[in-house]
Design goal:
- 62% of the residues lie in helices and 0% in strands.
- It has 14 helices and no strands.
- By secondary structure, the chain is mostly helical.
- It has one domain.
- Keywords: Membrane, Monooxygenase, Oxidoreductase, Transmembrane, Transmembrane helix.
Length: 326
């Protein structure tokens, strides 16, 4: 299967869609009684309220989520190929993205984090363009606005503001206008929200939006390790990819090295931002899938022994399915 997706063959479009539904067999066989989700955070519903999310049947919810993930995988695949982050262009980034979004049941339903992944892929593309742009002030402003929109949908997305400064450090010489423009873009979105709160005499509630930013990072975690055994094969592949990346790191183009550093920090920030949502759900970690998928795709793109990488991927898929069913 890996060898098939190493090629940019149009038939992979059909295979990827079939694979996306195949990886969701478990949830289709055991449909939840009811699935609800909100497009926007409670503080944004005063401005925009989309009630359709609670009127979908479980089957429709999962099917729409699968189609969204398929579209994201294609967009993500195109972004990674356009920036030449792998050895050659392929469908592997899309394949790994679909696989990553199938690790846990909560990943398979509509959620704010799933919708934010559209924005995350968009800003990944813009971040990777920073080093190739003569004047990036406008681009950084756009990134700030995109992060602002994402924060309206899911508040922990605000943590991506840190990625603006990290990307500027990696890709650009210091320019204070660029550093300010990202914040201005973000503030622009919330300026309109603040005005709406003011018009509705709720300005005092607007300040409460930012209370989670004062949360302390939790020092104690309650984890049922059996629920996360499916991450073992992922960790093994990431370890193999890291060793391979380390071996080839200084042979790669400078922009490619910087891109992998950027994605590594994005993975950490996306994962750690869960503390900004006291009642966060497991689907929060969908925000980690895109940067992790690049690492997985890097390994399978550069692996030499076909029998080994094909077997490894089959075992990976089978282990995911096993833990989903049990």
């Amino acid at each position: 299967m890996i060898n098939q997706f190493r090629k940019l063959n149009p038939i992979n479009l059909v295979l990827l869609l079939g694979y996306a539904f195949f990886m969701r067999i478990s949830i289709f066989l055991e449909l939840p009684a009811k699935l609800n989700f909100d497009f926007f955070e409670p503080f944004a519903r005063l401005l925009i309220n989309v009630p359709i999310g609670n009127s979908l049947s479980p089957t429709a919810n999962i099917c729409i989520a699968t189609i969204f993930i398929y579209i994201q995988a294609l967009i993500f695949n195109s972004v990674i190929n356009n920036h030449n982050l792998l050895a050659k262009t392929s469908f592997l980034p899309g394949l790994m993205f679909v696989t990553g979004t199938s690790l846990f049941m909560p990943f398979m339903v509509l959620s704010p984090a799933l919708l934010c992944n559209f924005l995350l892929i968009w800003i990944i593309d813009k971040f990777l363009k920073l080093g190739k742009t003569a004047n990036s002030v406008t681009m950084v402003f756009d990134i700030g606005m995109i992060i602002g929109i994402g924060t309206l949908m899911y508040f922990p997305f605000v943590a991506m503001l840190l990625m603006i400064f990290l990307s500027l450090l990696l890709f650009r010489p210091f320019n204070w206008r660029e550093w300010i423009s990202g914040l201005v873009g973000f503030i622009t979105i919330f300026f309109f929200l603040a005005v709406w709160y003011y018009w509705n005499d709720n300005l005092t509630l607007f300040y409460k939006i930012w209370k989670p930013l004062g949360n302390k990072f939790p020092s104690v975690f309650t984890i049922n390790y059996k629920d996360y055994l499916s991450l073992v094969p992922v960790s093994i592949i990431i370890l193999l990819a890291s060793l391979q990346l380390r071996e080839n790191f200084f042979r790669s183009f400078i922009n490619t090295r910087k891109a992998f550093q950027l994605l590594f920090f994005m993975f950490l920030i996306a994962g750690a931002s869960f503390y900004l949502k006291p009642d966060f759900r497991l689907w929060h970690f969908l925000l980690c899938v895109a940067p992790a998928a690049v690492i997985l795709a890097y390994y399978f793109s550069n692996a030499k022994k076909r029998w080994f990488y094909e077997t490894l991927f089959v075992l990976f898929v089978l282990s995911v399915q096993y833990f989903l069913f049990v």
